[in-house]
Specification:
Layout (H helix, E strand, L loop, with lengths): L5 H12 L16 E4 L4 E4 L17 E6 L7 E6 L3 E5 L5 E2 L11 E8 L2 E8 L6 E5 L1 E4 L4 E4 L2 E7 L13 E3 L13 E5 L6 E4 L3 E5 L7 E2 L10 E6 L2 E6 L6 E5 L1 E3 L3 E6 L2 E7 L6
Parallel strand pairs: 5-6, 13-15, 16-17
Antiparallel strand pairs: 1-2, 3-4, 3-23, 5-7, 7-8, 8-21, 9-20, 9-22, 10-19, 11-12, 11-20, 12-14, 14-15, 16-18, 18-19, 22-23
């Protein structure tokens, strides 16, 4: 005699109920949402809602990583990260980019952690040769910090004004600050890491860096620099760089950093865009 298991009974009940269930899917128009459509995608405006959109309460939030295409500033391969840790490298990791010889075999890791009550993603360099860079709107310039500007990398050197060497050889000195402005207490030098003979010494409290000699006091010949690319400022005894809404940005080398919900970083010669949610678990 065949005996019916509880599982089989549940299945029979579901089959019997199938004719009574009226299944459905999300319909933005029925939900009263504003919908617009173009040739690429349907845009839904969730700003006018009577209820909050459903969000998972206990699992880790998803993140989206875009591997930016060559000759693009924002578009590329989209990867959904659905795990706590995601590794990137040239030969090893969840994402391996073998074609990028500037990337180390194991280069960096993205790690989702709970920080002050919300989930955040941390980007950590795992001992790569050429470093990990994040795009910044502004950043302090400390001794030894590395910058990526245009096609070149620069090392920050802060000097004692009494011991600053004279401008000789390839060193370019920039004084053009405001009239009557006092000299900075600690002159700044930017040294090209690939060619240390290319050195830029800045003595004024406020300078514009870029490719146009008529509009900048710190002039670097680089086709990937804007005419006015970034500001160098000396405030309250500290140097700072500030991006001037440039096309290719200002990038700072990091060992480990919390990423904002929207961020960009570079490993080797590959640039990435990162998007994350930070829902708090209940």
């Amino acid at each position: 005699m065949n005996q019916q298991t509880p599982h089989d009974t549940d299945g029979d009940e579901d089959e019997g109920m199938a004719s009574e269930l009226m299944q459905t899917v999300f319909d933005p128009l029925k939900s009263g949402l504003a919908v617009s459509q173009n040739q690429f995608a349907t845009q839904i405006d969730f700003s006018v809602l009577e209820a909050e959109l459903y969000q998972p309460q206990r699992r880790l939030p998803n993140a989206k990583l875009i591997v930016i295409d060559d000759h693009s500033a924002s578009e590329g391969e989209v990867i959904r990260i659905r795990k706590r840790e995601y590794t990137i490298g040239r030969t090893h990791g969840d994402l391996a980019i073998e074609s990028d010889l500037e990337m180390s075999g194991n280069h960096a890791v993205l790690h989702c952690k709970l920080d002050e009550g919300s989930f955040r993603w941390r980007l950590t360099d795992v001992g790569s040769t050429n470093g990990t860079f994040v795009r910044v709107a502004k950043a302090p310039l400390t001794e030894g910090r590395e910058l990526l500007l245009g096609l070149q990398r620069y090392r920050v050197e802060l000097q004692d004004p009494d011991n600053a060497p004279p401008a000789v050889g390839e060193v370019r000195v920039f004084l053009g600050g405001a009239v009557g402005a006092p000299p900075v207490q600690q002159p700044l030098r930017l040294v090209n890491t690939a060619d240390t003979s290319q050195t830029y010494q800045v003595l004024s409290q406020r300078s514009m860096l870029g490719s146009n000699p008529k509009r900048c006091s710190v002039v670097i010949e680089d086709r990937c620099l804007n005419a006015e690319h970034a500001r160098l400022m000396y405030k309250r005894g500290r140097w700072q760089i500030e991006d001037n809404d440039s096309l290719n940005g200002v990038w700072v080398r990091v060992r480990s950093v919390w990423l904002d919900r929207h961020a960009e970083f570079q490993l080797g010669e590959q640039r990435f865009r990162f998007f994350a949610d930070g829902q708090v678990p209940s």
